[in-house]
Amino acid sequence: MTLLLIAAILAPILTALFAALFSNQSFRRILRVVLSIVCVALAVSVVPQLDHLSAIFMLLVSVLSALATIFSAGIFPGTDDGRTFVWSSRPTYFILIGMFWSSMLLAVTSTSFIGIWIGISSTTIATTFLVGFSGAKASLEAAWKYLMLCSFGLAFALLGLLLVGRAAIEAGLLPNLALSWSALAVHAQALNPSLMRAGLLLMLVGFGTKAGLVPMHAWLPDAHSKAPAPVSALLSGLLVSCALYALIRTQAVAAQSAPQLFNTTMLVIGGLTILVAAMLMLAQSDMKRLLSYSTIEHAGLVAIALGIATPLASVAALLHILNHAFVKSAAFLSVGLVQHEQGSTTIARWHGLWHARSGRLFLLSLIGLAGLPPLGLFLSELLIIFAAVNAHAWLALAIALTGLLLAFAALARCAIETESGTQTASAMKTSRLAMFAASGAAIGAIVIALLPLFGVR
Amino acid sequence: MVTLGILITCSMLVIISDVRVAVVGYVAFTAMIIVLLAHHESGATAITLLALIAFAKLLVGPAALVFVTLRYRLPWNLLPSANLPLRIVTVVAMAFIAHAIGRMDAFAPIHQASIVFFALFASVATVVLHRSLLAHIMGLLMLGGAITLAGASFAPSLPGAVELADTFDIIMTTFVALGVVRALLAHDPRVTITALRDLRG
C-alpha cells in the first residue's frame, strides 16, 4: 500500500475530524463540502495504482459518499426551529460518516481478504451509531438488530477465511499471501477442496449477511429505513455494493476451486432473495422500507447474475451494482428531501409530489428502480436476462422475471399514489445544496446508463 | 484439560442466568483460549499481539460490562427465555452436533475442530436463550473467543493479524453495543429484547 493510497483511505475520517474543530456552523458546512471534494480528488489520483474492479469501486464509494456528505451538510442548515433535523448539525454525525467512508475505501482497495473483512467489519461500528443516531426507540431497535446479525455474519466470514487460509498454507503458499485474493485465485485449484468448499460457503454466508441476501436479510429493512436519509443512501447504495464486491472477489477464488457448489448456492440464495423481497415490497406502507426491500431485491438479482457466472453475467452484475448504487442513492436522497418538506415517510401521506422538484427527482429514481429507460438498471437487467437465456438457466430466469414484475408493480403503485393529486402545503424550504447532491446522484445514474452507448468497457 | 475447561465454561454461559457468574465464566473461557494460543506463539511480535489480545479480552470487555451494569443499575439477571431443562438439552444437542461436524472430511484433520464449533454454537445459544441485552453482548464476546480459538486451531501459522482484527472488532462491537444499551435505557430500564420487537414486516 503506497502512502498516497493510505492518505486517500484516511482522508474522509481525518477531514471530518478537522472540520469538527471549527465552531462556526456555516464555515463548517462550507469546509465539509470542500473537503469532500478533496477526498474525491485524492481517490481519483490513486486509481492508476489499483486493479480495474477496485478502481471502479473506489470511485463509486468516493463520489457517492461525497454526495451524501454534501447532502447532509446542506439539507439541515443547523438552525433548530423545531422541525429541522438536529443530527446533521452535530460534528459526531460527520465523523461517523467519515469513518464509514474510510472503512469502505479500505474494503475495496485491500489486496487481501482480511483487509476486505476488516473494512466491512469497521463499517458496522460507524453505521450502528448512525442508524440509531436519532435515539428514537425504533432506530435503536434497528441499530441493535443490525449490530447483532452483522457481527455474527461477519464472524462466520472470518471463520471461512481461516479455513481458506489453512488450505492455502497446506498447499505451500507463504503465510502473508495466504489470504491475498489474487494469490488464492491463481492457486485455488491446488488447494484442499473440502476446506475450500467449507470456507467459501462460510464467506458467502458472512458477506451475504452484509449484502442483505435472504435468509440473512432481517436487519436490512429496519436499519436502512430508520437511519437518516443520507445514511440510508450510503447503506443501500454503497455498503451493500461493498459486500457484493467481497462476494465477487470470493467468487473469483471459488471459480477455480468449487465453482458448481458456489454458483448453485448463489443462484438458490439469489432466487430466494429476489422473490421474498419483491413480495414484501407489495406490502409496504413506508417509503424508506419499500426502498430497503428494493435494495434486497436488487442484491438478489446480482446474486443470480453471479450464480450464472458467464462473462456476460459478470459484466451485467457489475453494471447492475453501479447503476443500483447511483439510482438508490438518488432515491433515498430525494426521499430525504420530500421527508424534510412533508415531515413523514408514510406513502399514504404523500400526494402531488410531481409539483415539487424533489418529487420529480424522486419519480425519476422510481422509474430507474423499476428498470425502465433512460436509467441504466434497464440495460443491466436486460443483460442479466440475456445472460440467463444464453446459459439456459431457465428457472433462474423465471424467478428473476417474476421478482422484477412484482417489484415493478410495487414501485408503479407507489409512483402513482405519491405523484398524483394535490400537494400538501409545506412550510419547509428545500436547501439548494441538498438538491444539488440528490440531483448529482441522479445525474451520475444517467451518466452510467450512457457509458455503454459510447463504447466504454 | 483445557478443552474440557472450554466445554464446561461454554455450557455454563448458555445455562446460567446470573451476570456475575457469566462474567466469571467468560473470563475463565477466554483465559483458557489465551493459554492455548500461547502454546502456538513464539517471537516478540507474536507475544506482544497475544498480550494485547489478553488485555482486551480478559480485562477491557468484562470490565466494561460490569461497569455498565453497576453504573446504570441494571438487573444482575440475564433473563433466560427457555427453562433450565431446555437449556441443558440445547447444550447436549450442541455438543453432539459439534462432535459430528468435527468428524466431517473437511474438519477431521483439524485439531480441536469440534470444540471450536461447540464454542461457536454456545455463543449463538447464549444470545438466543436469553432476553437481556447484556447476554447478547456476552454472546458477542464469546463469539470473539471462539474465532480466536478457530484461528489457533484452523490456521496457526497465519499471521496474528486475524486474531488481532477479531479482537479489535469484538471489543469495538462490545462498546458500540454498550452505547446502544445506554441509549435504550430511556425506553426500557431492564434492557431486554422484548422491548425491541416493534419493527416487523
Q: Largest beta sheet of chain B, briefly?
A: none
As a percent range, the share of helical residues of chain A equals over 70%
Terminal-residue CA separation of chain B: 48 Å
**Gyration radius from CA atoms of chain B, angstroms:** 17 Å
Number of contiguous helices of chain A: 17
Number of helices of chain B: 7
Taken together, the total number of domains of chain A comes to 1
What's the overall geometry of chain B? globular
Helix content of chain B: over 70%
Strand content of chain A: under 5%
What is the strand and helix layout of this fold?
The complex is a heterodimer of chains A (457) and B (201).
Chain A lengths: L2 H17 L5 H22 L5 H24 L15 H19 L3 H19 L5 H34 L10 H7 L5 H19 L7 H8 L2 H29 L1 H24 L4 H22 L2 H32 L14 H13 L7 H14 L3 H26 L12 H19 L7
Helix pairs in contact in A: 1-2, 1-4, 2-3, 3-4, 3-10, 3-13, 3-17, 4-5, 4-10, 5-6, 5-10, 6-8, 6-9, 7-10, 8-10, 8-11, 9-10, 9-12, 10-11, 10-12, 10-13, 11-12, 11-16, 12-13, 12-15, 12-16, 13-14, 13-15, 13-17, 14-16, 14-17
Chain B lengths: L1 H14 L3 H22 L3 H28 L12 H19 L10 H16 L4 H22 L6 H24 L17
Helix pairs in contact in B: 1-2, 1-5, 2-3, 2-6, 3-7, 4-5, 5-6, 6-7
Describe the overall structure.
The complex is a heterodimer of chains A (457) and B (201). Chain A has helices at 3-19, 25-46, 52-75, 91-109, 113-131, 137-170, 181-187, 193-211, 219-226, 229-257, 259-282, 287-308, 311-342, 357-369, 377-390, 394-419, 432-450. Chain A is mostly helical. Chain A has one domain (3-454). In chain A, helix 5 (113-131) runs antiparallel to helix 6 (137-170). The longest helix of chain A is centred in the middle third of the chain and has 34 residues, at 137-170. Residues 77-84 of chain A have low confidence and may be disordered. Chain B is mainly alpha-helical and 201 residues long. Chain B has one domain (2-195). Chains A and B meet through helix 5, helix 6, helix 8 and helix 9 of A and helix 5, helix 6 and helix 7 of B.
